Design the sequence.
């Protein structure tokens, strides 16, 4: 894949008027001769922070993210793509299964132009968890432990689950 534009290089219709109401895409790449928008999110602790079931929380998360993908696709003005990829990082295989089951309940309209890729990450706490409000995780953050007294962790992912219509 070839990086075409990062989040800060993508411009949206509403930003012309000085406000930022549009959903945004994290970056755009060229793959196999096609331009694709990429959005990335984490799905951890489903149902634990809200007073709804984990399954309903998974549906709510997917619907919100897929609607955001549709909005950003229709509002981006300096590049065009036909499809987006929503890459969801999860902490357990149980969460992956939950999202897979929830995806089957989502409207085809919301799934129309998006491929959903779910990756289970083990040993990548810096990728999944933002443990400190003072320290933001950036794309240059190390995937190893920051404490010299603790062992470093290796990023491991299972085979990703790909969902698309």
Sequence:
């Amino acid at each position: 894949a070839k990086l075409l534009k990062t989040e800060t290089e993508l411009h949206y219709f509403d930003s012309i008027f000085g406000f930022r109401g549009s959903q945004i895409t994290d970056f755009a790449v060229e793959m196999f001769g096609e331009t694709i928008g990429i959005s990335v999110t984490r799905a951890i602790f489903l149902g634990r922070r809200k007073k709804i079931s984990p399954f309903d929380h998974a549906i709510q998360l997917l619907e919100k993210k897929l609607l955001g993908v549709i909005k950003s696709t229709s509002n981006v003005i300096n590049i065009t793509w036909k499809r987006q990829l929503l890459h969801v990082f999860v902490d357990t295989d149980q969460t992956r299964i939950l999202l897979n089951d929830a995806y089957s309940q989502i409207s085809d309209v919301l799934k129309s132009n998006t491929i959903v890729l779910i990756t289970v990450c083990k040993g990548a706490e810096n990728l999944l968890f933002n443990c400190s409000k003072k320290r933001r995780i950036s794309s240059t953050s190390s995937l190893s432990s920051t404490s010299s007294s603790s062992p470093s962790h290796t990023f491991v992912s299972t085979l990703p689950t790909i969902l698309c219509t």
Summary: The chain is about 25% helix and 25% strand.
